[in-house]
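Reminder to self: keep the SMILES exactly as supplied, no canonicalising. Ligand is manganese (II) ion.
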Amino acid sequence: MKLQLPPGITLETFLAEYWQRRPLHMPGALREYDFPLSPEELAGLACEPAVESRLVTDRGDNRWELQHGPFDEQTFLSLPEENWTLLVQDVDKFLPEVARLLEPFRFIPSWRFDDVMVSYAAPGGSVGPHIDTYDVFLVQGSGRRRWMIDPDPVSHELLPDLPVRILAEFEPKQQWVLEQGDVLYLPPGVAHWGVAETPTMNWSVGLRAPSHQELFDSFAQFLLERIPPGEHYRDPFLAPTRQPGRIPSATRNHTFEALDRWLANDELREAWFGSFMTEVKPHLAIEPPDEPLSQETLETRLAAGARLQRHPFARFAWCRRGAGGYWLFTSGEARPTKLPEEWLERLCSAPSLGKEALLPEPYREPCMQLLAGLFNQGQLEWHDE
Ligand SMILES: [Mn+2]
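Structure tokens returned for the bound complex:
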């Protein structure tokens, strides 16, 4: 299944002219996709303790209510006819048929994706006008929703004392009514407000864009775990001073250089970037299997036709390593490896892995060691057809 871009727009021009820059309305872009989820199934998912869900109700006059799941059946039975939205995060992690919605977006690296959030709204339902800090593809699953946007909001100010983020001012500059299979791409920073015109289901394909604060927090933590505690401040070149109150520039710069060496350490920042970008949300922790498998058993089963898949919560990526070979990142863990590039790409992106994943010599041993290691962590599991 492919994303049907509007006439005259290719994936290349989409990325060069719209991606991270401006919104694009794509009518019928996913006309071919059958949205395999009913409102009842979504409500069922919102009752599961492992699933993150919210219910937003608009009581009018800027009175907004927010409830967090898990919900019970009674909650859904007592809802009003209008003006509420149920939102469920990470539906792609729990339902493989929903994860297939990501396929048309595979022209974007997979580690950039956060999740598919599915929402159901009663007529009039919305989460209010707001601004997100990440890119999103808003996909209309069923019903009709009116999207109003302002690509250049003058103010990011929010209404005070509300449980949901609602812009204090919102002047729509453009609007569209989306029907099943229509897609609206929004880059970060665009003010938007989507109001259900009928009972409606929406699928939001959301990307990850950590703030610089989060990047530094994570990188600093990564460095703190790796800088030897024996490394200390040093000033071996000190000259006699007549101004004992002064911090000499040379001493200060010497310290800056010491810190810069850590910040610019390629081995560390390569390992950190991939680890950070493949981290899994804490509540989606991956558990090891009950029975660990030996390399031999795994190899025998794969050779006999069994197939592996990545755990649905897992995030895999690879890249070149400056020091030679590659890095493999698996849900926040970095491993240097010399296994071939094509094999790493398949491990990170193929829907399943069978005997084609068994590498001949000289890679046989490291390949089996890696597959068995990942299996015994729970990162890989048997593929269910
Ligand atoms: Mn939004």
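Points to follow up:
The first strand starts at residue 24 and ends at 26.
Residues 11-207 form a domain with the Jelly Rolls fold (CATH 2.60.120.650).
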